[in-house]
Amino acid sequence: MSTKSSLKSLLHSAENEHNPLTMSDEQILEQIYSTHVHSDTKFDVDSLFTLVENTLRRSTHIVDNVVQGSHASLEHIDDKIPQFNSPLCTLKQISHEMSCKPPSEEVAHKTTLAILNKLSNYEWDAKAVLTIAAFALEYSEFWFLAQYQPTDPLAKSIAILKRVPVLTKPAALQKYRQPIVELNSLVKATLQVIELIFELEKLTTYNTKDVPALEDAIEQIPVDVYWAIITIVAVVTQIDCLTTESELKQELSHYGQKINIILSKLRKQITLCRQQIEEVEYYRKLRKILQTPTEIMEVFKFLIFFKGAPQLLFDGATKTTVDITVLKKKNVYLFVSSLDITDEEILVLRPVFDYIKTNDEYKIVWIPIVEQWTEQLRKKFEILKSKMPWYVVQHFGSIAGYKYIKEEWHFKKMPMVVVLNTRGKVQHSNAFHLIQAHGMKAFPYTSWNEEQINREINWVGSVVGGIHADVNSWIEKQKYIFFYGGNDREWIQQFTKYATALANDANIKGANISIELFCVEKEDKSFVKRFWSGIESLFVTKVHRTVDAVTQEVQKMLSYKNETGWALLSKGPAVVLSGHGTTILKTVAEFEKWKEVVIKKGFEFTFKEYHDKIVTTTHRCSHLELPNVAGKLPETIKCPDCPRTMEIFISYKCCHNGHAGNAIR
């Protein structure tokens, strides 16, 4: 490459570095950040902007009248005139910096950087307001003189000095009409941009964690201010070119395009920010309402419906639409779920409904949570609604308090029941598992009821009672019962063989010990599902309580859910012990080794003693899989078999049945 062409390439590269039309936002930011000094400079930018708005609104209106030859008036608008000490010297310095510059993007860029350096101690919105204020002084004076020069001799003399007639004589207006209209429109658009920047700055009192849209918008403010200032600089240059009748002109179309893009972007950002701020304010108000005694109907209305939405419920019992006043002065069970709820989960609440339908103090309301309704989901909703005899929220839109339900009540698409009293106070943040585990025994399902039930040590009846007639009879007769199952059929056969032999042994019979066997896995799938759902629900009701022997046994049982084999021995409703397939099978298989001790120490004590001995010689990792249930799970869980804290792993499951897979901790 020749020396001449190399020099030309370097000059072209240098020009591009100072041409804003070829620079990226990152390059502009890099240059303008060096001009900014973070300081505590106090400045009444609000008052100055009010004066600038007054001035430019009226002066741009005069331009429109002069160009169009009309006499439309703005006199009916009352301008707010604040008490304000004008920073006149600063404004004059800025005005001087912009005046009489040759038309060029590079010069406009350098001028803008010079202005930013002069205003280095001011906030970004103040830099923009001060610059447009300096422009407004000159621009408004120019067109003020244009308006009054025909009738005022002083105005006429000053107008000549300012070269006003060059643009305002009829012949000049005909010649320069289009560029005047263009620059006047650009002044209006730039004022709007600065107004929106100013508005955006006022929103920064909110935390960006609460209003995420603010973060991106705030990051862009310096670049937006830069484009507002350079556009004003370009407009001043174009006015100078026109009034001096120069052959050169400042091209404004590129700046107009950029300002309109910024204007559109800022409007969208502010709209989004205001939506998010409304959500934040709603969230705060909802939290306050739920903490302050308020009539339940008002709480329900605020939680569910947006302003203007129809506030109706569907009564599943009468198949009619009713007003939400039916909830007034009632204790309300909010049954919250997605549309993936199963028939079994709906049936959990059926006994509660059957009990309260004769008691007018309690009502159940299903709140379906759907993020985006479709025609298919509407049809699914109608099918589910037809299966529910209680009230249903008849509303095909977003639930107003969805964020609160998700974050404060920890809704995770699985069904939950929030219990509210007549004053809208939460009595239980999720009683679904309490209802599933204990049924009507825990009514009316407050946290106090849960605490009372959790003190009980006999929990077998809660899980299997009421779902199998034989088991109910054995529990009532205080018989020993082996509940067992697992994923390995061979293990089940082996356990059945040895446990049957144990139950029929002459020593056991002779001691009047009655032992029954119940294989969970031999029942239908619906029973197996209800059995493990009962164990899971029992665990969820206990997991946040102080860990005791009962909680440990329930946790042990849950850890056996996906094992090859397991067994639980109870006497009536009381649990004797539960064990993993490896240890429990060996205990019953080696019955001959400890059966003589049964006569001396009793069956229960001997069985536990021998099983504990085998456990100490058998190493096995404990696995606990928790479904993605509604409600908050503890950060740590103690191992049910040793004093250590269990490690946490994340796994995912999909059964290919049309329901979404759940994460499992």
From TrEMBL:
Pfam family, one: SEO_N
GO biological process: phloem development
Span of domain Sieve element occlusion C-terminal: 450-509, 523-656
Location of the Sieve element occlusion N-terminal domain: 24-293
Source organism superkingdom: Eukaryota
Signal peptide span: none
InterPro entries assigned to the protein according to its UniProt record, in alphabetical order: SEO_C, SEO_N, SEOA
Protein name as catalogued: Protein SIEVE ELEMENT OCCLUSION B
